[in-house]
Amino acid sequence: MYRKNAWEQYSAEERARLNAFSDAYRAFLDNAKTEREAAAEAERICRAAGFRNLDALIKTGEPIGPGDRVYRKWMNKSFMAFVIGRQSIERGMNILGAHIDSPRIDVKQNPLFEDESLAYLDTHYYGGIKKYQWLALPLALHGVIVKRDGDTVEVSIGEAEDDPVLCITDLLPHLAHEQMEKAASKFIDGEALNILIGSQPECGGEKDGEKAEAKKDAVKRAVLSVLKRDWGVEEEDFVSAELEAVPAGRARDAGLDRSMILAYGHDDRVCAYPSLMALADVDDVPERTLCAVLADKEEIGSVGASGMNSHFFENTVAELTALLGYEGELAVRRALQNSRMLSSDVSPAYDPAYPGVFEKKNQAMLNLGVCFNKYTGARGKSGASDANAEYMAAVRRVMDEANVCWQTSEIGRVDAGGGGTIAWLCAKYAMNVIDCGVPVLSMHAPWELVSKADLWEAYKGYCAFLGI
Hints:
This protein has twelve helices and 22 strands. The protein is α/β, with parallel strands linked by helices. The chain has two domains: 6-102 and 264-466, Zn peptidases (Aminopeptidase), CATH 3.40.630.10; 104-247, Aminopeptidase i, Domain 2, CATH 2.30.250. A hairpin with a 5-residue loop joins strand 11 and strand 12. It is globular and about 75 Å long.
């Protein structure tokens, strides 16, 4: 099937809108390098668009009705927003569902150690990464440290121009003959992904007889002094911290023609942002209730209390139906079962540099628009939700009527591997769901690439879907 390059259809006016949207997305990425930061940015966007905090309404019991706009931030890591429609919520919602976590390097709970006068943080990587890609790379540290008394210290270091950065060291080629003969998966062991954070010892104060003892862990003590001075935390506070090492630096325009964006975290914030903006830009009372849900933990199987495999979304819909005046569980079950959802998640784009793992005619291409994955999974469709043909026809019709450039995709060749999204978890409610997102080059690398045209077509497609 022939698909037109999306750039070919844009007027000068639409190109200007596309570029403005891309600029806003890059700013979002710079402020949302972790799931916590992404949830905070989503809250800021929704508050500016007139959404009210659902938790505050739950406390007061204030009823809601058609046209009301509400949001809920869950555990500071997941986010949901709703625009209430004219129809009964039992007739279902139009849902856009993305995730806001990305592969990264997490700091362990007892991380700080010194080795040969160098101070390190011990780590445990999060999600599917090629470990070698994180070596000799400027890293920033984001997250929170919660002290024993409950006081929370927000951490973001390595992003400002005058901030120091951190890194994981690599071996020089002259001494790496054995290392370079290893398989890529064995190139560096996960336990060796230690982040170098200091080399200057604490100095002064020791007596002659105490010099040997004073030198022990002097660099570690100096680092602890910095932590105490700058953040007011002790070593033990690492136990109740969530610190994430991510690539340092801003999202950038890519290509001499500025047609692409190079950034950390496109997977899946390149779908989360247009999903949220499509909902925030709704300017009238819709027929059906509309929803955007941005979930945590997708990269490790959607587990945990903030992942889509928990009941946080279902519980929030129950709270919503109660404020709408419905009683009992049946309204919740009907609302979910009768919903229609786009699982807004990325797909790997065809890369001419690696043709062997793709089946070209069934692979998403850069610049051909938003892509639909009827099924994901691995090999024999294991773990796929596999949308039905009737639903595929319905969303296809919506995209065509809205003049949205779209394409279909699979994750790769049948026996090459696979992957999953949150689609199968939402399909458990018996709702219609299909994956629909932006193609990405270098997916799961520290820096990923997307097309501005595909980002724009995703936003247009999500807007069209909300209107059906």
